[in-house]
Amino acid sequence: MKKLVMIAVAAFCAQTLSAQNIDRTHKPAPGPAPVVTIGDPTIYKLPNGITVLIVENHKLPKVTATYSIDAGPITEGNKAGVTSLMGGMLNEGTITKTKVQFDEAVDKLGANVSLNAGGGYASALTRYFPTAFMLMADGLRNPVFPQASFDKLKSQTLTGLKSSEKSASAISARVVNALSYGKNNPYGEFESEKSINNIGLADVKAEYKKYVTPSRGYLTFVGDIKPADAKALAEKAFGNWTGTTLKLPILKPVTNPTKTEVDVVDVSNAVQSEITVT
Predict the structure, then answer these.
(1) Choosing a second label site near 178 at 20 to 30 A (CA), which of 24, 30, 71, 189?
(2) How far apart are CA 274 and CA 278, in angstroms?
(3) What is the CATH number of domain 38-70+93-143+216-247?
(4) Residues 196 and 158: beta-carbon distance below 8 Å
């Protein structure tokens, strides 16, 4: 016992002396940067134009897939907010499943499946991934757009806009973008109560039909999956999908200001000021 105590005391003294020898007047030198190795993807195209990219990584028994639509910046005009509402509606059920059934199917797998106006995402353990992936594809390809869900999402959007009217940072962001790009530019337009009220369910359906297509689509698989298995899943889920052909919009060049401009927005109920320099 005495020997163990002496060893512990000696170790403590050595550590203390070592700490005393550290020069704390200089910043420690950085260690070596970690090396990140990313494998080259296997790439091929489906007949309908979807580009498929597969990156194998068998370190963990998990696979993630992302479907991305390269639609470019979308000008929404007097219906600003329609794209966001359309994306939200993709999570409200499909032809084969109600929203509750869809969510329960995802939860049962312990997976993560989400959809938005830009595409879809699915992530799950390898054994459950094919099922999760097909759920994501079902959500993208077969949304039902129930009227009740649309009314609810629209109401929530309007409530959020009313809340942002009291936020100096939100107001500043809108004004800065509108002044920098112009209100008729997709980077300068913003949602308002008027633009949201201009949107009906038919507009959301039209937006979906126009932009959620295999044209300019990119399907990426990353994780514990073989290229042959990924190809088979891609073809099963999206091989016979058809839709409109997307073309990237041509935007007018933005004119730079010729002189310094100061713009002030009086928000009398704001508890703080927001200053933005751009």
Answers:
(1) 71
(2) 13
(3) 3.30.830.10
(4) yes
Q: The tokens 């073309």 sit on which residue? A: 247
- For helices 129-141 and 227-238, angle between their N-to-C axes, nearest 10 degrees: 30
| Residue corresponding to tokens 């170790």 | 11
DSSP 8-state code for residue 117:
T
105 phi and psi angles, rounded to 5 deg:
-65, -40
Q: What's the rounded Cα separation, in Å, for the pair 220 and 185?
A: 30
Spatial neighbors of 179 by CB under 8 A, at least 6 apart, are 188, 261, 263
DSSP single-letter state for residue 169: H
Domain ranges of the chain: 38-70+93-143+216-247, 75-87+145-211
Structural contact between residues 243 and 212, judged by C-beta atoms closer than 8 angstroms? yes
Number of residues written out for the chain: 278
Say what the pTM is: 0.83
- The answer to whether 69 and 97 are in contact (CB under 8 A) is no
Q: What is the DSSP letter of 77?
A: G
Residue 202: closest CA among 98, 117, 85: 85
- Per-residue pLDDT of 83-124, as tens digits, reads 999 999 999 999 999 999 999 999 999 999 999 999 999 999
Question: What tokens were used for 86?
Answer: 């359309």
Give the CA angle between residues 254, 258, 260 to the nearest 5°. 110
- Residue-wise pLDDT for 25-34, tens only, equals 788 888 898 8
